[in-house]
Structures are given as C-alpha cells and as structure tokens.
Amino acid sequence: MFGVISKYKLIVYEIVIISFNELLQGNQDNLHKEIDQYQHELTALQSSYSQKISNLNKKHKQELQNLQDEKEEYLQRIEELEGRLLNPNGVCIMST
Prior knowledge:
By secondary structure, the chain is an all-alpha fold. The longest helix has 84 residues.
C-alpha cells in the first residue's frame, strides 16, 4: 500500500511540475510579447523624434538662408546709398 501512495504522490508532483512549467512558459511568452510591443512603441517614438529633428533642421537652414539673403540685400542697399552720397568726382557731399 505504501508503494501505491508513493506512486500517486509522484504522479501528483509530476502534474504540479507540469502545471508550473506550463504556467512559467505562458508567463515567458507574455513577457516576450510585452517586450516586442514596447520595442515597437520605442521604434515608433524614435522615428517620430527623428522626423521632428529633421523638420527642425530644415526649418533652421531655411531661416538661416533667409537671413543671409536679407543681409545681402541690406549690404547692396547700403552700397547704393553710399554711392548716392558721393558726387561724380568721388567727393562726399555730406560731411560727418
């Protein structure tokens, strides 16, 4: 009789171990799914961030170019005004 009880205990222990292994495997699968989901979210955020940085860089370059163009226009205008101040002989009409 003792042998029969020991066999039943062994069977019960095996069932418990199998159940725990299945539970562990299920938890590991869920963990891997969550990790994959977070990695996809992280990739999407990185892509969005990269796009925003790229857009800001383009905007900055365009604004810088506009400022440089304005500077050139002002310098040309200054030259024109300086030219008007001088008479044909190269003498300045206005005194400082």
